[in-house]
């Protein structure tokens, strides 16, 4: 096994010392909770915020928004009142399983991250909003919280600082839309998981109308290493491969030889991910196309494999890095079947709040099913193309439907001939 250190693989280096680190004493022996002591005893909340901002930590949940900038929007001061910190652990993006690794294998790492982030914004209560199917993660996180509370890292007057915060695991009922932060907040409050209109943004009026910060699991787990080693160290982890900072949990799913998750410098190429770490495609299969970061991103082609996997580079290529876990499609797979499977998921997971999403996604699925059976009509391809415009950004209440349109839009661009093959041979244009 390759030896790595906290200096080079800050998110996963502890796993050299055990398949999972769940005991607080073991975790503390591996630099665990050192960032809590340093932040609370040596830094002000504003110092922590500035350090994270200087480190250029971008959100690892998909959007890539700068974490320090998000934190800077939270009201501070003695009159700021009650504030909440929420970890978005509702990992339901198809093909994405990086946060599961962190929560199951290193639960104390997330608990420590929540404490430091909570201190930075002076939150009084924090929640880990967890995907309901992650039962093992829930058990280990709850155990870690109890151990941290017994050690004085949570509860009243943490480490004698006068600051208090409680942390809870809240398991969701299983809705993809809860990955959208305002839908997550509604669900946390016991409401239907519909997105909210913005503004106001959660940093001003979030959970129960109070200022709230929502961050992804992987994003938060970078906080403690930044506290311990500084902004310049974090920015240097990309090894010049990317203007973005830090490492990234990358992964590969699909018909590759070794699917999995690896912590690598951000900006690592997709080719290195697939051919080196995942061992390439399975024998007898060739790469047809790939999604760079979950189901709600645009397909890219084999000629894009040498691109750096960072936010701006993948955006310029016509897609989004998203969660950074690529899904490979091989040359034996029919693109209409691949699209139908993805769009069925998005149609099922629509919250139904707005008409374009509620009605448009099932309509797209119906057309794809007909094309898959070879019973399509000549006008179906143009109708699918029209859907990608009618369900695009600004025409729906949130980003769910536009995300569903990204793989469809790119498949129509690169594989139109396969859609044409789904048109019935005796079909004629009506009228």
From TrEMBL:
Pfam families associated with the record: Complex1_51K (PF01512), NADH_4Fe-4S (PF10589)
Catalyzed reactions: a quinone + NADH + 5 H(+)(in) = a quinol + NAD(+) + 4 H(+)(out)
Task: Print the keywords alphabetically.
Answer: 4Fe-4S, Flavoprotein, FMN, Iron, Iron-sulfur, Metal-binding, NAD, Quinone, Translocase
Q: Which species does the entry assign this protein to?
A: Agitococcus lubricus
Q: Which InterPro entries match?
A: NADH-UbQ_OxRdtase_51kDa_CS (IPR001949), NADH-UbQ_OxRdtase_suF (IPR011537), Nuo51_FMN-bd (IPR011538), Nuo51_FMN-bd_sf (IPR037225), Nuop51_4Fe4S-bd (IPR019575), Nuop51_4Fe4S-bd_sf (IPR037207)
Q: Which PROSITE patterns match?
A: COMPLEX1_51K_1, COMPLEX1_51K_2
Listed name of the protein: NADH-quinone oxidoreductase subunit F
Described by its record, this protein's role is as follows:
NDH-1 shuttles electrons from NADH, via FMN and iron-sulfur (Fe-S) centers, to quinones in the respiratory chain.
Report the coiled-coil segments: none
Q: Report the EC code(s) recorded for this entry.
A: 7.1.1.-
Superkingdom assignment: Bacteria
Domain (NADH-ubiquinone oxidoreductase 51kDa subunit iron-sulphur binding) ranges: 336-381
For this UniProt entry, the molecular function terms from Gene Ontology, in alphabetical order, are: 4 iron, 4 sulfur cluster binding; FMN binding; metal ion binding; NAD binding; NADH dehydrogenase (ubiquinone) activity; quinone binding
Q: What is its quaternary makeup? A: Composed of 13 different subunits. Subunits NuoCD, E, F, and G constitute the peripheral sector of the complex.
Q: Which cofactor does it need?
A: [4Fe-4S] cluster; FMN
Q: Which family is this sequence assigned to?
A: Belongs to the complex I 51 kDa subunit family.
